[in-house]
Amino acid sequence: MALVTTRNLTKTYQRGPEEVQVLHGIDLEIPEGDFVALMGPSGSGKSTLLNLIGGLDTPTGGEIEINGQRIDSMGAGQLAHWRSNHVGFVFQFYNLMPALTAQKNVELPLLLTRLSGSQRRRNAEIALQLVGLADRGRHRPNELSGGQQQRVAIARAIVSDPTLLICDEPTGDLDRQSAEEILALLQTLNREHGKTIVMVTHDPKAADHARRTLHLDKGVLVTDAALAAH
Fold first, then answer.
1. What distance lies between CA 126 and its chain's CA centroid?
2. 2-229: what CATH class?
3. Does the structure show a pLDDT above 90 at 52?
4. Concatenated DSSP letters for 63-131?
């Protein structure tokens, strides 16, 4: 079953007096349990597509269906509520709160739920354990390496048990060894915990960790055959 479906998806931005069309009629299906890497040159529309699938932005035209629910016509409030229940986000820069411990950072998404304080702590502990940081819960971000901070960010992304994990250049700010560890962790979350992952990356080695790679060029999904012809 397709967890993510887009139909004739378009996105246009107004830049001064002119309109710039970033996505041109994207038709896409991502089955539940898939791990997809999105690649393409800078400006090809990768992050725009990721933001639309994750409900961070709304399309100019077309449809987005996630787990049988249309999100393209939701208002800002509806989208915010939907995101908090269904999507986990991992970005290139970890976006951790510097004054909070790792555990408190992981707990942040749970503040929007009705869970008790003790249940929030327990869920955060489980998420930190999953990413291999059970012993780092009391450390603040400046006491952790870049790779460890990204693990905390991943724990925060999965603590609400989201349907979909959205990763935008998750290894872009890391050295090669830390990047490999993060990619192996994403593979584990996909293969052993059934997380559906969509990851934007410019790095072919990172894309090799996904189950399949999709290529965007000038706002259009291109086939492998079309790529070979370039």
1. 20
2. alpha beta
3. yes
4. EEEETTEE-TT--HHHHHHHHHHHEEEEESS----TTS-HHHHHHGGGGGS---HHHHHHHHHHHHHHT
Structure tokens at 75: 């208002």
Summarize pLDDT for 156-170 with one digit per residue, the tens.
998 888 889 999 988
The model's pTM is 0.88
> How far is Cα 221 from Cα 23, in angstroms, rounded to an integer?
9
Residue spans per domain, the chain = 2-229
- List all residues 6 or more positions away from 90 whose beta carbon is below 8 Å from its beta carbon: 150, 153, 154, 157, 165, 166, 167, 168, 170
Report the pLDDT value the prediction gives residue 223, as an integer from 0 to 100: 64
Q: How far is CA 185 from CA 61, 78, 95, 96, 189, in A?
A: 35, 31, 19, 19, 6
Q: Distance (Å, rounded) from C-alpha 203 to C-alpha 197?
A: 16
What is the dihedral sign for C-alpha 117, 111, 135, 101?
negative
Given the DSSP bridges, would you call strands 2-15 and 61-66 parallel, antiparallel or unpaired? antiparallel
Cα distance between residue 72 and residue 40, in whole Å: 24
Q: Which of 26-30, 65-69, 114-118, 212-216 has the lowest mean pLDDT?
A: 114-118
For residue range 73-91, list pLDDT tens digits in order.
Answer: 888 888 888 888 889 988 8
